[in-house]
Amino acid sequence: MSAFDLAGKLAVVTGGASGIGVGISELLAEAGATVVIADIDAARAADQADALKGAGHKAASVAVNLADEASVVAACAEIVAEHGTPWVLVNNAGLQHRELLLEGSVAHWERNNAVNARGPFLMIREIGKAMVAAGRGGRIVNVASSGLIGQMVHGLSAYLASKGALAALTQASAMELAEHGITVNTVLPGGVGTPGAIGAEGPPPVGPGNRRPPLGMCEPRDIGSAVLYFATPMARYATNQTICVDGGFSIT
Predict the structure, then answer these.
(1) Cα dihedral angle (84, 177, 88, 96), rounded to 10 degrees?
(2) 190-209 confidence digits (pLDDT tens)
(3) Of residues 214, 215, 234, the one with CA closest to residue 225
(4) Known catalytic residues?
(5) Does the structure show a pLDDT above 90 at 1?
(6) Domain that holds residue 139
(7) Distance of alpha carbon 133 from its chain centroid, rounded?
(8) Residue of 182, 211, 218, 192 lying closest to 88 (CA atoms)
(9) What is the pTM of this model?
(10) Which residues is 34 bridged to in the sheet?
(11) Sequence-separated (6 or more) residues with CB below 8 Å from residue 125
(12) Is 251 exposed, middle or buried (0-12, 13-18, 19+ CB in 10 A)?
């Protein structure tokens, strides 16, 4: 299992203070990585880093507002200055509030795209520069949504548009970064009972996405398993690829 060993590697997980981000952070830490929790909630990010350290792992935290370019630039500079160049960047943070298409507002559209698409672009730009300068390659994993292949409910036009942009960003980034030994891949989570999903604002989640998957609802660590694969030497030749972890929803 040494092929899954991330000892001595630095991983950055946006939105790592709650929900799916916790599962991702735990698995990367258990594989030996030093994990930096990058989250808009600085106190919760620090608590999660402390929890990882309490379990015997290496972790730290940094505050970042993905909707603010200056915040992203400053956070990435802080990470590199204090911890070194990341080996893994996981663009996990995202909003999933709902607005019906014909009632949608520009503010809702812009907010979703600022956090879910523009934020990851800025993270890739800043961390990617450090990876290229270090000359050791790296791994970037973008967490999109299984809604892109069908697990949908009403009110997700802005959300899915932003996640579609993120998936397209994977392709463009994979092409431009391949020459530097940096792979870029996508994970599509299915239904996960996270606080963000349960507390999402908007109209009732009506649609096929309410069907129970054959294997049941996913846990955050199920999503983390796919991220871990892409982060390790086992996936050294996988780039511009997608893994959907949806409990079998796509076969129903």
Answers:
(1) 120
(2) 888 777 666 678 888 778 77
(3) 234
(4) 159
(5) no
(6) 2-251
(7) 23
(8) 182
(9) 0.94
(10) 10
(11) none
(12) exposed
Q: Find out whether 157 and 99 touch, Cβ atoms under 8 Å.
A: yes
- 86-118: pLDDT as tens digits: 999 999 999 988 999 999 999 999 999 999 999
Residue 152 corresponds to which tokens in the numbers above? 């949908």
- In whole angstroms, give the CA distance from residue 241 to residue 238: 6
Helix axis angle, 119-134 to 69-83, nearest 10°: 30
H or E element that contains 37: strand 34-39
What DSSP string describes 95-158? ----B-GGG--HHHHHHHHIIIIIHHHHHHHHHHHHHHHHTS-EEEEEE--GGGGT---TTBHH
Counting the structural domains of the chain, the total is: 1
Residue 124 amino acid letter: I
CATH code of 99's domain: 3.40.50.720
152 pLDDT band, cuts 50/70/90, is: confident
* DSSP label of 212: P
Apex CA 183: angle with CA 192 and CA 20, to 5°? 15
